[in-house]
Amino acid sequence: MSNIKLNQIDSYPQELLNISIEELHSLFPGPTLLHLQGKRPEPVFVSVLLHGNESTGLHVIQELLKKYQDLDLPRSISILLANTQAARYRKRSLGGQPDYNRVWPGTIKPNVQEAIIMQEVVDEMANRNVFASIDIHNNTGLNPHYACINKLENRFLQLAVLFGPTIVYFLRPKGVQSMAFSKLCPAVTLECGRPGNPDGTNHALEYVNAVLHMQAISNKPVLPQDIRLFHTVARIRVPKNVTFSYTDQSAAILFQRDLYKMNFTEIPADTCFGIVHPNNNARLLAFNDSDEELGEKLFYIDKKKIKLRKPMMPAMLTLDEAIIRQDCLCYLMERLPYTN
Ligand SMILES: [Zn+2]
Q1: How far is the CA of 197 from the centre of ligand 1 (A)?
Q2: What's the CA-to-centroid distance between 340 and ligand 1, angstroms?
Q3: How many CB atoms lie within 10 A of CB 164?
Q4: What spacing in Å lies between the alpha carbon of 135 and ligand 1's midpoint?
Q5: How far is the CA of 268 from the centre of ligand 1 (A)?
Q6: Disulfide check for 275: which of 79, 106, 141, 254 has CB 3.0–4.6 Å away?
């Protein structure tokens, strides 16, 4: 796939409206940027399927296109259908592909073909005077719907709070879409719960439609009572050479079976994350925004139990062992004091 190119179009085949996520690649074998004109020219940019298994974004686009099939769009929209090849197999990304949400300008891998394509997308949207950027995702744990931002500015907070009160601010990992677009316009990443859940589709559809109708994004402060703002303290990973499981007693780390229920719950110090196999010194790694490893500062081992040193709030805890290996076990967050 190293010879992939960006496909840019300004109309779409009718099949797009109902095609399945697995078949989408038959219409668009590579990343495709669809531009549609609306009454206000500066477009909203919406990216979907940066992660091929996260189907909500495609469903949102299909419902939106159906809604406006015979109506003028209130504002132009540009839609990126990103990793259609991974979507074919309902995978986050395929072997040999980079993660499509780590290759945007600012990435640590600027020379891969996918990074060159994403740079082209950003340049194109800059030329078109992009109004706002929305990147639609799913996750696998029990998480509320929430928006992520990469700048603590009023217009970013206003765009995020329109999706809901829970907002996460982060600066790592590098190379994510919303961070690249934050240089051009207010930008959010939407986390819409699990793939295939109609609540996530309806919520994100209403949201995109609301943004299309906005004349401007307010620069007024968001009221403190309307917002629960968190920032990521660390991304928690399992060392590459350490085995883990939720069920297999012989794994080096046996995670607590109900860990995934703690997402977006403030959990106390000394909470147990898992049991370490007696014959090894397995541990969890924690990386902060500067990529410093803080595992020892956040966790300690007490009678073979991995415990948390201080109160924290996890997000994105998942039971999916492939995601834990590829991406991370979870993020640990703290509340950011917010006053305006
Ligand atoms: Zn994702």
Answers
A1: 15
A2: 31
A3: 18
A4: 9
A5: 28
A6: 254
Q: How far apart are CA 188 and CA 181, in angstroms?
A: 9
Cα 30 to ligand 1 centre (Å): 18
CB distance 74 to 212 below 8 Å: yes
- Half-sphere exposure at residue 340, Cβ-oriented, CA atoms within 13 angstroms: 16
What digits encode the pLDDT tens for the residues 126-181? 999 999 999 999 987 778 999 999 999 999 999 999 999 999 999 888 999 999 99
Structure pTM? Answer: 0.89
What's the pLDDT at 340? 67
Residue 281 tokens, joined = 């010194």
Position 271 scores a pLDDT of 96
Structure tokens at 251: 């794994």
- Collapsed DSSP state (helix, strand, coil) of residue 165: coil
User: How far, in Å, from the CA of 277 to the mean position of ligand 1?
Assistant: 31
| Mean of all residue pLDDT scores within the chain | 95
Query: What pLDDT is attached to residue 155?
Result: 98
- How far is residue 196's CA from residue 136's CA, in Å, rounded to a whole number? 13
How confident is residue 74, by pLDDT bands cut at 50, 70 and 90?
very high
Would you place residue 2 in the very low, low, confident or very high pLDDT band (cuts 50, 70, 90)? low
Please say whether the dihedral angle defined by the alpha carbons of residues 314, 315, 317 and 323, taken in this order, is positive or negative.
Answer: negative
Q: How far is the CA of 138 from the centre of ligand 1 (A)?
A: 6
Torsion of CA 318, 319, 324, 327, to 10 degrees: -40
Question: In the chain, where does DSSP find H-type helix?
Answer: 24-27, 56-67, 84-88, 113-127, 154-161, 177-181, 198-213, 295-298, 321-326
- Asked if residues 260 and 274 have their Cβ atoms less than 8 Å apart, the reply is no
